[in-house]
Design brief:
Elements lengths: L1 H4 L13 H13 L17 E3 L4 H6 L4 E2 L3 E6 L5 H16 L4 E6 L6 H6 L8 H11 L5 H7 L5 E5 L4 H13 L5 E5 L7 H5 L9 H23 L5 E13 L10 E6 L10 E8 L22 E14 L8 E10 L4 E6 L1 H10 L4 E3 L2 E4 L9 E3 L2 H10 L1 H19 L2 E2 L3
Parallel strand pairs: 1-16, 3-7, 3-9, 4-5, 4-6, 6-7
Antiparallel strand pairs: 1-2, 7-8, 9-10, 10-11, 11-12, 13-14, 14-15
Helix pairs in contact: 8-10
Length: about 425
């Protein structure tokens, strides 16, 4: 009896075996590296780190940019600006990461256009054969400064080419799993063809259904493997480009003899794993005499050397991982000719004014609108009308960039995100 009386009793304050903790430990030990189960405090949402897209309105809608460790699909019609959007993000990445910037293009449809990338701000080096062709075209040798400018590259810009789709996608997976690249871009879904479909005969000029199923299977396997890498902490942003084409539907004509255009994907669209779906489309604008296509309506800066391009509308069809679908925006593409080179720029003045007012940085008063004091200014700028704000932002580029960074900073703070930096 004495032994029973001296036995220590458990109290409610003492820890007891947690069945959930026991189950987690058992599952992890049993499956080792194949399965990992963890509590909320033991794993991280990598997408809280953001990579800017290079487009202010899109960064605002995505709460800072693309989330690290996410799959993004950008699709639209021919020449709508899919590569344009990719290269703007690359240029911004080089600005942030400097010599540690690492970018990879998986060229399935065609080779990377280094000239287009350079026009959009990406610093990528030209090869020696390209330099010799330029010298032959100009009829003279390049100066030291010209050669230095044409061979300047910030960080590393790579192109990955495979003999078929299978090898190219495997190379892309290897690049993603290395976690050494900030961006891996697959260009594009529409150009994919399995090894088997390349070897088989084309009957009647039509692709067989078997080859189509092969490409769909390859994409599904690719997405599943990419998702597994993201779940293990890979921070690379994977961007896949896809085309949308129009076919003529004679079954439901608009009127007799007039077929109805039907939008179809050019390739097998991604159906799984993607966190962001961006649709790009063109819109028409009419330029009146003496006006620019800027939404604010102010005069164009030196119209003699500014060439206007098409208007582009973007729309978030799907957005997870720290953002939400639904937002849309418009931007104007134009070419600013500097003689020896051209800068392909965009105008988002109206977007900036609206978003700055939305986060409370522009004060709307009866006597006018007040912009915040930036760049060492003692007082803010007062504008009588909203169009005056747009004109001021267009004339003062440094102030405009500082205001964009301030607006995005407010969005990042409100969403709990940060910009991924080295």
């Amino acid at each position: 009896m004495a032994a029973k009386q001296t036995r220590k009793r458990k109290t409610s304050s003492e820890p007891v075996n947690d069945p959930v903790a026991v189950a987690i430990d058992l599952i992890n030990k049993k499956n080792k590296d194949r399965v990992l189960i963890a509590r909320g405090r033991d794993f991280e949402n990598t997408f809280r780190r953001r990579r800017p897209t290079g487009v202010f309105g899109l960064d605002f809608a995505l709460n800072g940019g693309y989330g690290c460790g996410t799959l993004v699909q950008i699709y639209g019609a021919d020449s709508v600006g899919k590569d344009d959007l990719v290269y703007r993000g690359w240029a911004k990445n080089q600005e942030i990461w400097g010599p540690k910037s690492a970018l990879c293009m998986v060229a399935i449809e065609m080779m990377m256009d280094k000239g287009q990338a350079r026009n959009l701000g990406v610093q990528v080096s030209l090869s020696e054969p390209e330099l010799r062709l330029i010298e032959e075209s100009w009829g003279r040798p390049l100066t030291d400064k010209e050669r230095s400018d044409l061979t300047t590259e910030i960080g590393t810009v790579c192109q990955l080419v495979g003999e078929d789709t299978e090898s190219a996608l495997q190379g892309a997976l290897d690049a993603i799993s290395s976690n050494a690249f900030q961006y891996v871009v697959v260009d594009s879904v529409g150009g994919m063809a399995s090894k088997g479909s390349l070897e088989e005969e084309v009957v009647g000029g039509k692709e067989s259904r078997a080859s189509g199923r092969d490409v769909a299977r390859l994409l599904t396997e690719f997405c599943a493997k990419v998702a597994s890498l993201f779940n293990r902490g890979v921070l690379t942003v994977v961007v896949v480009l896809n085309q949308v084409r129009e076919e003529q539907n004679f079954a439901r004509p608009l009127r007799p003899g007039m077929p109805r255009p039907v939008r179809t994907t050019g390739g097998r669209a991604l159906r799984h794993t993607k966190a962001v779906d961006i649709e790009l489309s063109k819109f028409k604008w009419k330029l009146e005499d003496g006006e620019s296509p800027f939404t604010s309506g102010q005069a164009a800066p030196n119209p003699s050397y500014v060439h206007w391009g098409p208007g582009v509308e973007w729309r978030l069809i799907k957005a997870k991982a720290g953002a939400h679908e639904g937002p849309r925006g418009r931007l104007i593409r134009y070419v600013r000719d500097h003689g020896a080179w051209r800068a392909w720029e965009i105008n988002e003045t109206l977007e900036l004014r609206l978003r700055a007012a939305q986060v409370g940085l522009i004060e709307e008063r009866a006597r006018g609108h007040r912009l915040p004091p930036l760049l060492g200014m003692e007082k803010g700028v007062v504008c009588a009308k909203a169009s005056d704000i747009a004109a001021y932002l267009e004339r003062h580029r440094e102030y405009r960039r500082a205001l964009e960074e301030l607006v995005i900073g407010e969005v990042l703070r409100s969403s709990g995100h940060i910009i991924a930096r080295p």
